[in-house]
Amino acid sequence: MAPNEGYDAAVARWRKDPDAYWLEAARGLDWSRAPSRAFDGSMGLFGRWFPDGVLNTCHNALDRHVAAGRGAQTAIIYDSPVTGTIRRFSYAEMLDRVSRLAGALAARGVAKGDRVLLYMPMVPEAAIAMLACARLGAIHSVVFGGFAAAEVAARIDDATPKAIISASCGIEPGRIVAYKPLLDAAIGMAAHKPDFCFILQREAQRCDLVAGRDVDYAEAEAAGAPHPCVDVAATDPLYILYTSGTTGKPKGIVRDHGGHAVVLHASMRMIYGLGAGDVFWTASDVGWVVGHSYIVYAPLLAGCTSVLFEGKPVGTPDAGTFWRVCAEHGVRVLFTAPTAIRAIRKEDPEGALIRKYDLSKLEALYLAGERCDPPTAIWSAEKLGVPVVDHWWQTETGWPITAGFRGFGLFEPRPGSGGKPTPGYDLRALDAEGHEVPRGTQGALVLKLPLPPGCAPTLWNAEQRYREAYLSTFPGYYDTSDAGMVDEEGFAWVMGRTDDIINVAGHRLSTGAIEEVLAAHPDVAECAVVGMADALKGQAPLGLVVLKAGARREEAELARELVALVRERIGPVAAFKEARVVARLPKTRSGKILRGTIRKIADGERYSVPPTIDDPLILEEIAGVLAG
Ligand code: COA
Ligand code: AMP
């Protein structure tokens, strides 16, 4: 971003000479070997960024700031209402801890290119472990704590980690989640076994360690000899993050070092308007891409102070927690999911708790993870008195596709829009034949290739799946699988997914994965899962099941079993609470289940009877069951 540059000027500068634009952005970082060119279109699926650059992401996130004399500045504020803890970690302290943990991992054989799986609650050690891997050039893969053992096992088998870093427990409001038994079960189920595990013992609930495999995290870190940064190619993988695909098998999104560091660093000033020393709080979880990018990497690359919050928007202890954290730590920009705001609004509709705190430092609220409904955006702006900025992105892109840009001067508020494309993204809306639709018309939202730096260059062990999932529908474009439009003024309006992915409380879930679990129940012949509208979580999964011939089951009891099965196989995060028994499922004559029509019936929307349906009466039957 050039000084005083506006949005249109930045877009024009990028379009005129993308290589010069990105090489300029790359100069914001330290490189062991600076890239001589920005892009090589002959590499990978659609080209690779900074092909001859060499750097280390951890050096740029920590060492660089300490070397510049800012070691005493706070890097991370750990605020944990669930344990009653607030702790500040300076850049110097983070550097010391990260380099020791890197040393402890290296002493046990972890080296550049090895995978390390992290299954951690929201504790500072999660960020320390991510950065320690980055320091070694090892590839981390963080698994969200709300996933069950089978999901962890699937990730262990795909990533084949040399080591696992985990904790004895996580803390959810009103219950302790024992991570260690889940981890032990996952390792038991997986064909691949890690060489060793570091286990963080937490006071809330300690756990037994497996002799010969488990090592106490704190002891290992304390005894580790500080390890220097290992040079990696900009195109080497920094992490794998698994996300839901349309089948039960998750996709391992690969992020590379160089492009990721360049765009995240640049995004802090351009999108959020923040620089070194500013306090930024992303209320999400390190298990999601939002947490990777905006709790850990981007704020530290930019020298900010990042708040790492272990709690919920409500219930820890009340709907004023977010405002207490903002006031207490002088947060300038807060980033969260609309669901969190809806949860707060439900408990404090008048915003009385907002007025209890001094929010004079708060300058903006950013929202992402799901479409922000206009009432939520309007309520937040009114009650907080700051601009509310919705921005749209995906695990695959790693940073916002569209946004409002504090660095360029914010656009006028347009509740319901995700803003304009970030320079670097060439956003288009296409019809089913792949032709661009006129501005203001709905279409498939796609990005003209190449994708900008930072976006996933491939899927772990699954290059062909990347090609099929993202590049094959519209040749020359990356298919976001979101539908929406770009209006006359260039604002994007993202309406929802075109595939079988649903968004529950900002968490991305595959209906296919839930269907696989329901179908495994001995009494279920076939099933369909759809995302029905939910006032708090945006969407909630609804399962319709058809019983096997001869199975006589009481519906409520079967539903309880199915709910328990999804919780056991996928985890509590699936938030699967409702299953109904139906006699038949509506299908096209070719046998495709009409999930879109089921969803409309569940939401009480008007639906048209699809001409290809084999038996229209089924729709009335389903409406009757759901109404009953
Ligand atoms: N470890 C273990 N379990 C977890 C977990 C974790 N890290 N995170 C969530 N869970 C559990 C919850 O305890 C809950 O279990 P339950 O069924 O026993 O109650 C279940 O998973 C569903 O969680 P969630 O969908 O988050 O619902 P909730 O009722 O606990 O909380 C909100 C509702 C709105 C407060 C919560 O969803 C929230 O804070 N959302 C913000 C979303 C967000 O940050 N998204 C990230 C993308 S930006
Ligand atoms: P995830 O990969 O978990 O970040 O989920 C990405 C998906 O969430 C996107 O493809 C969208 O469907 C949805 N999403 C995320 N942010 C937004 C937003 N600001 N507006 C609309 N949809 C969003």
UniProtKB/TrEMBL annotation:
Location of the AMP-dependent synthetase/ligase domain: 65-448
Location of the AMP-binding enzyme C-terminal domain: 514-592
Upper taxonomic lineage: Bacteria, Pseudomonadati, Pseudomonadota, Alphaproteobacteria, Acetobacterales
Protein name (Swiss-Prot/TrEMBL): Propionyl-CoA synthetase
Source species: Roseococcus pinisoli
Acetyl-coenzyme A synthetase N-terminal domain location: 7-61
Family: Belongs to the ATP-dependent AMP-binding enzyme family.
